[in-house]
Fold:
Amino acid sequence: MNENIKLNILKADSQFEEKDFYIWCQDVILEIEEAWSCKDIDLLKSYETKELFIIHQEQLKNMVERHVQNIVKDIDVKKIDIVGYESKNDMDCIETHVELALIDYYQSLDSHEILQGSQIKKRSVKYRIVFVKDRNMVSNGFQTLRSLNVCPYCGAPIDLKKSNHCEYCQRDIHARQSCYKINELEILTLI
Structure:
């Protein structure tokens, strides 16, 4: 990230930590890709603005109606760059470019036939992702799975390297909380 962008972000959000943002961003990207494959609409809702969520909800509904599933797996986050910042409509907007390598294919739910893509060949994809937060809101940091050692629901000790499920209260743990949400998600290149 260039120094001007960094200064502008820090002016708007004095609690912003670049390193923590990158770790949080990687965790969120991995989780939304998995949520997309599993059609976990509730999880998507927690990371996206209302406008983007409505678009994704319609896309998933369309796939269900056509009996098609988009499988995304074996995701490697290769690079995350913060390429822009602006304040507009009372929102702080951080623009990123994210490069991934992943398995990505569409499959018929009825016949299990591969309709598009490959089950074995990784594809390279570059996304433009814009994260936003209300500019009057002070950042609450970027909580990641790597920083959590107790369950946020019951306080029991957890080891998220083994499981993202609390053995004591039986809840799944999605620890990537922040006041930032994904507002725009666009594929720039797909190879």
